[in-house]
């Protein structure tokens, strides 16, 4: 089967997400995958130029070495705001080109550009699947455009033959937005249970960053958004002294808040207790998780972007028997509930208090075991089976 995936983010530089895992797994099963993406990171990591040229990246694999995905990157104007306007023009043109040259059996789209993908799919009588992994209009940098993005999402939903969501909170959201309940299905995030093995050693990481055997390591990985809550956690760490002065915060990743967190580290003398590694390759992530004792997701609970999502890293933490402390994020609470290896704090400032309470009650190992037991039903091969089943169903219905 030939599948064309259209998205409005960087497929190559962004950390592996749902689309990477599923694209690579089904490519290993003999399906041909082409991705149209967007050089969203051009301002910080791209070449300095007025207009980028169309590029093709063949044999792309971020997780499975034998997987092969072709990524097509249309050219854009590298001018703030105009980059998004030019994206719509260039992606529309590229979708038509791929329909003519690649002749996809199914068009799959994530994000706000699903409108373009859905419109082209209907024009050429190609089945269209709209996959929701977040609420895309909330990610548009210019907030005054959010209402327009919301309208575009509604229109795109009407064009979909099938709507997939990554969790049940998002399913509720898209049905309320107008998606057909009968044609809306949850295909959740997953985890590679072999790669994220609780028996992996984190000793090399602890040694590299000067973490002693009796240190308690609190871990976060991912993009450092301003709303990630990590600045608040870092400030709270500076207040913790005495018997918990051996509590350390290990942050893997970069992003908008990186420099501010670094400033907190220097201002409050947290050189030995706050470890910022920057970006780390995905294959090394299991060792970093293994080096930790407790993992956190301290995002602002009132941040709209976070309300409907369940990050894949939560499954990866749990797979390695690490207890997780998160704020009261609706998507996570709906997905996992209570007594499944996740503890909740009402705000970022209280995350470390919840961590300390867990340590004092000797519950860390118990909660970690609960999490591992739960995610054993979320192996990526099982998720890929469900996804491939939907692809086959949609293709058969179109004949």
From TrEMBL:
Span of domain Glycosyl transferase family: 205-363
Pfam families given in the database record: Glyco_transf_4, Glycos_transf_1
Domain named Glycosyltransferase subfamily 4-like N-terminal: residues: 22-194
UniProt superkingdom: Archaea
Gene Ontology molecular function: glycosyltransferase activity
Protein name: Glycosyl transferase GT4 family protein
Lineage, top ranks: Archaea, Methanobacteriati, Methanobacteriota, Methanomada group, Methanobacteria
């Amino acid at each position: 089967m030939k599948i064309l995936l259209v998205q409005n983010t960087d497929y190559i530089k962004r950390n592996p997400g749902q689309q990477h895992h599923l694209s690579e797994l089904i490519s290993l099963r003999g399906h041909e995958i082409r991705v149209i993406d967007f050089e969203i990171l051009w301002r910080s990591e791209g070449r300095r130029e007025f207009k980028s040229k169309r590029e093709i990246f063949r044999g792309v694999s971020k997780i499975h070495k034998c997987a092969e995905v072709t990524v097509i990157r249309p050219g854009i104007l590298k001018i703030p705001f105009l980059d998004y306007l030019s994206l719509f023009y260039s992606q529309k043109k590229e979708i038509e080109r791929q329909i003519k040259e690649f002749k996809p059996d199914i068009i799959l789209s994530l994000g706000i550009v699903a409108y373009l993908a859905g419109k082209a799919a209907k024009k050429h009588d190609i089945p269209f699947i709209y996959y929701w992994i977040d609420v895309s209009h909330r990610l548009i940098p210019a907030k005054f455009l959010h209402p327009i993005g919301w309208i575009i999402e509604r229109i795109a939903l009407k064009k979909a033959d099938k709507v997939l969501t990554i969790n049940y909170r998002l399913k509720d959201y898209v049905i309320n937005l107008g998606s057909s309940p009968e044609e809306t299905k949850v295909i959740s995030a997953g985890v590679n249970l072999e790669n994220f093995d609780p028996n992996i050693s984190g000793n090399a990481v602890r040694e590299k960053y000067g973490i002693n055997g009796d240190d308690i390591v609190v871990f976060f990985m991912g993009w450092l958004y301003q709303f990630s809550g990590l600045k608040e956690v870092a400030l709270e760490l500076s207040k913790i002294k005495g018997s918990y002065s051996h509590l350390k915060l290990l942050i893997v990743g970069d992003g908008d808040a990186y420099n501010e967190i670094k400033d907190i580290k220097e201002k409050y003398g947290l050189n030995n207790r706050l470890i910022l590694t920057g970006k780390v390759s995905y294959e090394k992530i299991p060792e970093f998780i293994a080096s930790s004792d407790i993992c956190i997701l301290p995002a602002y609970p009132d941040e709209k972007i976070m309300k409907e999502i369940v990050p894949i890293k939560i499954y990866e933490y749990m797979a390695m028997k690490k207890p997780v402390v998160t704020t009261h994020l609706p998507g996570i609470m709906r997905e996992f509930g209570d007594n499944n290896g996740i503890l909740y704090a009402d705000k970022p400032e209280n995350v470390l208090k919840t961590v300390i309470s867990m340590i004092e009650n000797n519950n860390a190992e118990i909660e970690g075991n609960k999490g591992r037991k739960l995610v054993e039903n979320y192996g990526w091969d099982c998720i890929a089976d469900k996804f491939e089943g939907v692809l086959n169903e949609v293709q058969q219905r179109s004949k």
